[in-house]
Each structure stands twice: as C-alpha cells, then as structure tokens.
Amino acid sequence: MDGKELQNFIQELQQARKKAGLDLTPEMKAFVDQYGKTTDGKIGIVELAQILPTEENFLLFFRCQQLKSSEDFMQTWRKYDSDHSGFIDSEELKSFLKDLLQKANKQIEDSKLTEYTEIMLRMFDANNDGKLELTELARLLPVQENFLIKFQGVKMCAKEFNKAFEMYDQDGNGYIDEHELDALLKDLCEKNKKELDINNLATYKKSIMALSDGGKLYRAELALILCAEEN
Question: In this predicted structure, what is the pLDDT of residue 229?
Fold first, then answer.
C-alpha cells in the first residue's frame, strides 16, 4: 500500500477511532507519524496488519482483495436485500461476504468466512438486532470506490426526498429510470459541488442503477442513497 491509497487509509483510520471514542494505540500513532505526512511512503500489508486491531485488520483484508467496483458491491447487496428493506440479516451476511470475495477471485475456508461474519456483526450491529445497513457494509470498499461516503453529505430528510423523487419521476410511473436519474444527479452535483464531482456523474449513476430492478429504480432503493435515517 502506498501513495494516495495509504493516505486515504490513514485518514479513515483516524476518523474511525475518533468516532468510536478511542485513542490511537502507540503503534498506530507511530505509524501515522511516520506515514501520514508524505505521499511517498510505502508499507507492506503484512507489516500494516501487525499494528491494527482485529476489526481494522478485517477491513484491510477486504480492501486488498481487489473488489472490482462499487457497482459489483451494489449488485451483491441487491441480491440479498430481496425485500428492499435496506438491511440484510445475519443469516444472509455470510453468503453476502462469500459472494464479494468470489467476485474478487478469492476462495476462503468456511471456518474463516464464519469468523469474518462474526466480526462484521461485532463491528456494526450496535443494537444487536442481527441486521446490517448498506452504508455500514460499504466500509468494506476501498475509500476511493466508496461513493456512498460522498453522498452522506447530501442526504435529504424524508419529506425532501419524497418531493424530489416525485419531481424527477417525470412520467409518474413510480420509479426512476436511467435518464431521470441522470437529471437528478446533475442537479445534485450542481448544488453540492464541495461533496460531489460532476466529472464522476457516470460512475455515480452506474453504481446507483446497480440497485435497480431491470432499469427501474424504485423509491426504496434510491432512499438507501439519498434519504437520511430519521430517529
């Protein structure tokens, strides 16, 4: 791991520890001090794994499996979120992880896959209900592929989202097609230039359309990307 990839990893490590209310361990601090201020650094995966706790090690492992794209990730998600609830349960999680690794041409023993499944639940299932959200699982993606990070800053409340959906569902058929999504994303990019790069519009669109049903993007699927959860 080197260059920009290493810089991104360091930044996310710091943010994740801060969000969890944890300080960097002495080993992590030494790592950040050594590699965090230059883009010329390089560190081996094995060496890096030795200074990370189990959870960060797990994420590092997945990000090194060369998952092809966020589009592959979204397609795999849609396969398991069959009821369009925005969650997958613990029973489906193991198969979900197995599918992701197969897309990366990585074979893994069943016992190890069970271990990874348990780690995922320990990391993300804060309320112990046995369900995980799309944005939580998306942490498995490399930072540069995780377009959902970009959309966190532009999510709307339910009322705003429903109004936008109805406005861009121009023919009123209850779903948004590729052309309607294109118009919606262009407007979002124009209004949120700090968060979204219009040069990446095609990538955003392709990843989001991976959630569609035969080119039909229904309200529940688009809400996973653009609607903020309301407590």
Answer: 73
